[in-house]
């Protein structure tokens, strides 16, 4: 059974429209875990524009968690949006990990104007029970 | 800064509520009561650096929030809607700040807030024994730093004085107006 999709002009062509979208101000989210670093660039509302991670940059295994990998991931992500015309950005850093400083450094070096740098690591107010200790 | 942010918010938000009957002067304190030491809520307005853990407002613009609550009550808390995410640490970047300085400042703030320490602690479960040990260690570290350097000089003196005072309060002897004296 076919659902009647309401015909709106923009609906059918939303794919191509998104790539042309120009945003002067955006938010860069850096999720730095112990094993990897993911850099996502979104607009101020949170809609993702582009992303890159240490894994997609070609590093695998233990090398993904290194600060150098974080640096390349950040550089990759920024390069994709700079040509879209983003000038200012906020940075939100999440998680412990070696990639925090390195990615921030790379963002700074890429020439984007930073307004805030925030740490948004989620902190439970003693919520869920974490997994048991590893006995290695 | 208040006017520019006001213009920003006017373009995005239309005033969705009629001006409330009594405009409150202070911005709403959406301060979550938290037991963690890492989520300290210092709402002092430092122009350069703020570290906060508020559930809906960033108090870096607490000053302009006050102003806006007087100027336009319905938009006074538009700031709180804008920055909806809670953050642990916020560093405001100035123009042309050298990279190392920014990084150093950020790192220092994070260390002050204890974010990474907290994260590592919460990775795996720690039972009551572990928790007690950790608290003991932390307390020792804190007290050692504060009282360590002074202890060596005044230790004997204060101890002896205290002992004397204790003895005096003990009422070993009969009171002076007793018939037995």
Total beta strand runs of chain B: 2
Main sheet specs of chain B: 2 strands, antiparallel
User: Helix and strand succession of chain A?
Assistant: HEEEHEHE
Ends apart, CA distance between termini of chain A: 55 Å
Low-confidence stretches of chain A: none
Helix content of chain B: 40-55%
GO molecular function, one term (chain B): structural constituent of ribosome
Keywords (chain B): Ribonucleoprotein, Ribosomal protein
Pfam families (chain B): Ribosomal_S21 (PF01165)
Family (chain B): Belongs to the bacterial ribosomal protein bS21 family.
Question: Quick summary of this structure?
Answer:
The complex is a heterodimer of chains A (136) and B (181). With 136 residues, chain A is an alpha/beta fold. In chain A, 25% of the residues lie in helices and 26% in strands.
Protein architecture, described:
Chain B: Belongs to the bacterial ribosomal protein bS21 family. Chain B: Residues 16-60, 127-181 are annotated as: Disordered. The complex is a heterodimer of chains A (136) and B (181). Chain A has 136 residues and is of the alpha/beta class. Chain A has helices at 14-20, 67-82, 99-109; strands at residues 25-32, 37-43, 48-53, 88-94, 113-119. The termini of chain A are far apart. The mean pLDDT of chain A is 85. Chain B has a two-stranded antiparallel sheet. Chain B is elongated, with a radius of gyration of 27 Å. Chain A binds chain B through residues 92, 95-96, 101, 104-105, 108-109, 114-121, 123-126, 129-134, and chain B through 32, 34-36, 38-39, 53, 85-93, 99, 102-103, 106-107, 109-110, 113, 115-116, 118-120, 122-126. β5 of chain A pairs antiparallel with β2 of chain B, so a sheet runs across the interface.
